[in-house]
Write a structure and sequence with these properties.
Number of domains: 1
Strand content: 15-25%
Largest sheet: 4 strands, mixed
Order of helices and strands: EHEHHHHEHEEHHHHEHEEEEHHHH
Distance between the termini: 26 Å
Length: 303
């Protein structure tokens, strides 16, 4: 018997199923504001998606991360001529769908719900909204030294890996691999002291970017910036303490309700045109709004 490739993964027992905006907002009331913590949210259309950035979703992408970075800059130099840091370059690359070590999150739970209701082909898999509870003191800004160190991992080749764990701080920073990374950091921060902590390179940090991008503003966007797990080809793990809900209480969006919830969100002002304010996305939204329903459904069903 041939195994079906479209088999839907088993959902975690005890997961909370969401079928409307009202149900979702009721669940959001469980996450009351806490002093010293900030909530962020992420929505994805398949609950089986791992919490890793796009660069790690294809082995060839992470193996060529520094090439992807350089190729986009050399082909579109005017778009990057004013970038002050590698992190801000990664933000722009993420904006244009190049795989990066950034994972999008938002401060607006309804924006996360919008993305959880995306229809990927004919998938029957539930979407998910992930809730993050991040210590406010650990949130970084775009100009953080730690952010510069982590972002510049993207400029190193796939062979980049950390020295032995038993090295002291001085020996660690004297290692050739770390010297190369320091060189990248100093290109944007000449004053940077030649001191990198192994723990920083193996971390995942929440970063608030510059609000110089209309999409980031509209989506209340922020990012999780991923370090590495010993070697560049392995991502660091999101700290379990960042996850507000236990695995048994994951918020899953019923696949048959996605279109209905999208309509509810549109009535609340969350549309493709407001989430993606660029003119091509707005034009696409207007075109779809005034299209003949039957023709639109037929078009969307094509591979």
């Amino acid at each position: 018997m041939v195994e079906r490739k479209d088999r839907v993964p088993l959902e975690p027992e005890g997961s909370i199923k969401v079928g409307s905006v009202r149900t979702f907002l009721t669940e959001m009331e469980r996450f009351e504001p806490e002093k010293g913590y900030t909530y962020f949210f992420r929505g994805h259309s398949r609950f089986s998606h791992r919490l890793v950035p796009s660069i790690y979703r294809d082995p060839s992408w992470i193996a060529n991360e520094e090439v992807l970075f350089k190729e986009l800059v050399l082909r579109c130099p005017n778009d990057f001529s004013g970038q002050e840091s590698t992190f801000q370059s990664l933000v722009k690359m993420q904006h244009y769908s190049l795989p990066t070590r950034l994972l999008d999150i938002t401060a607006n739970p309804l924006v996360a719900m919008y993305f959880a209701c995306e229809q990927e082909g004919q998938t029957r898999e539930s979407g998910e909204v992930v809730v993050f509870r991040i210590p406010t003191a650990e949130i970084k800004y775009f100009d953080s030294d730690t952010v510069s160190v982590l972002a510049n991992i993207s400029r190193r080749p796939s062979s980049f890996e950390l020295p032995d764990a038993d090295l002291d701080r001085e020996a660690f920073n004297d290692h050739t691999q770390i010297h190369y990374l320091l060189h990248e950091v100093k290109r944007e921060k000449p004053y940077f002291e030649p001191l990198i902590l192994r723990a920083h390179l193996e971390s995942v940090v929440c970063v608030k970017p510059k609000l110089d991008n209309a999409r980031i503003i509209k989506q209340d966007g922020a990012f999780l910036l991923f370090g590495m797990n010993g070697r560049k080809t392995e991502p660091a793990s999101v700290p379990m303490g960042f996850l507000a809900a236990a695995a048994s209480k994951r918020l899953l969006v019923e696949p048959t309700k996605k279109a209905f919830i999208r309509k509810q969100l549109e009535s609340l002002g969350l549309t493709q045109a407001t989430i993606f304010p660029e003119i091509d996305k707005v034009a696409e939204f207007i075109k779809r709004t005034y299209a003949t329903p039957a023709l639109t459904a037929s078009s969307e069903s094509k591979p």
